[in-house]
Write a structure and sequence with these properties.
Radius of gyration: 17 Å
Mean pLDDT: 82
Strand order of the largest sheet: 1-2-3
Order of helices and strands: HEHHHEEH
Number of helices: 5
Helix content: 40-55%
Largest sheet: 3 strands, antiparallel
Shape: elongated
Distance between the termini: 28 Å
Structural class: alpha+beta
Number of domains: 1
Length: 98
Amino acid sequence: MTWQQTDLDRVLELEIFELPAQDPTLQDADLLFTYLCQPQYRLAPENSSIREAMLKALVTGRARAGGWFWATHLPGGLPGVAHGPFASYDDALADALR
């Protein structure tokens, strides 16, 4: 039996969730590495005040925004790439269903 795209669409689950501005930023490993290489943030993993300063710089310096996101995944699996941010749950749902 061959799977068609419509079969896969029926299997995927949709997840809609809200994240503060720091969370999407923390998922960008390349950006985090770039900041951790800077001398003023090299101790961020061990020092909470330096870590908070780095997170503030990450969020404000990259104009990151929190909000509503959506992702699809197979039942019981981890979510895929998050799409967003959206201003509201309804906006994220509408975009996911397009």
